């Protein structure tokens, strides 16, 4: 009997997610601070944090006040770090929700103290130029840290997946900045997914895995590879036979040169399947690659199944595993000319999520 699926659905393998996290914890040798911002990269923060709880992480990382408050609503009791700088008006509600802000400049630290204070982490900029105090300006806030020492300190690597020397250079600047502090914070952290994969055991106190948890690695040469977590599937809802010269989709950009068989999938860019895959994408049908035909539309995508045995109701895999073949997030993102992060977070709320696996 064919599986019943009326539109696109994302199947999320929580068991694979747990195993990916466990692999990084073993490799790093310290507790995890998993990043579950942006609704856990689009996969559902509540289901993801509940799965990760079995790994006993130190805490969780988010990007916004609202994301942190949502975790508290779900009864998360572990520390929750907010990695985007908070505005002054956000600090009191952040304190009320027992969130830990990441602060850098003097006015941020002083505003947090006026809001009542509490645990905070010092953000040190060693090359991202995005958030945190530049490493060379640490002396400007030294007096504030004597009065209210941070619980932790961290930096953010900009190119940890590249073997270009920048990771080591940024860590050197981080060490210099830490050495200039009045005292060493209890918790130091630098390593993201790619850094853990490259470095192995860390010298710091926590690691901050993100996209590796969700099935995206740091290249074929990385020492550790994740299991696939995300599987995007959609049913074939129509099949038609075309004659030579017939066209497909908007703009008639795809014209068949010989008789062809075209199948329509119930998934489009409103579901998060990128329109940029119109000329470069392919999906798996019965373990066989079938190229996208014509422009990906808002609600439907056409594929060429001239050489593929299939019928209405069969499932196509747009991301993930079909039999022994895997269309990785990295491959699909590369075909779309986008980053894996963008692809995952672009999976829209209209796409039904289902969860499999996972141990309590």
Q: Rounded to an integer, what's the Rg over CA atoms?
A: 23 Å
Shape: elongated
Q: How many β-strand stretches?
A: 18
Q: Into which percent range does the helicity of residues fall? A: 25-40%
Terminal Cα span: 31 Å
Low-confidence parts, pLDDT < 50 over ≥5 residues? none
Counting helices, strands and paired strands, the structural category is: alpha/beta
**Beta-strand share of residues:** 15-25%
Order of helices and strands: EHHHEHEHEHEEHEHEHEEEEEEEEEHHE
Oligomer: single chain
Largest sheet: 9 strands, mixed
Number of helices: 11
Q: Would you tell me the overall average pLDDT?
A: 95
Describe, in short, the structure shown:
The protein is of the alpha/beta class.
Protein architecture, described:
With 360 residues, the chain is α/β, with parallel strands linked by helices. It contains eleven helices and 18 strands. The chain has helices spanning 14-28, 37-42, 45-52, 65-73, 88-96, 106-114, 142-147, 166-179, 193-199, 329-336, 340-345; strands at residues 9-13, 60-62, 80-82, 100-103, 121-125, 133-134, 152-154, 187-189, 230-242, 247-248, 254-255, 260-265, 282-285, 288-291, 301-304, 315-322, 325-327, 352-356. Strands 1, 9, 12, 13, 14, 15, 16, 17 and 18 form a nine-stranded mixed beta sheet that branches. Strands 2, 3, 4, 5, 6, 7 and 8 form a seven-stranded parallel beta sheet that branches. Helix 1 (14-28) packs across helix 3 (45-52). The radius of gyration is 23 Å and the shape is elongated.
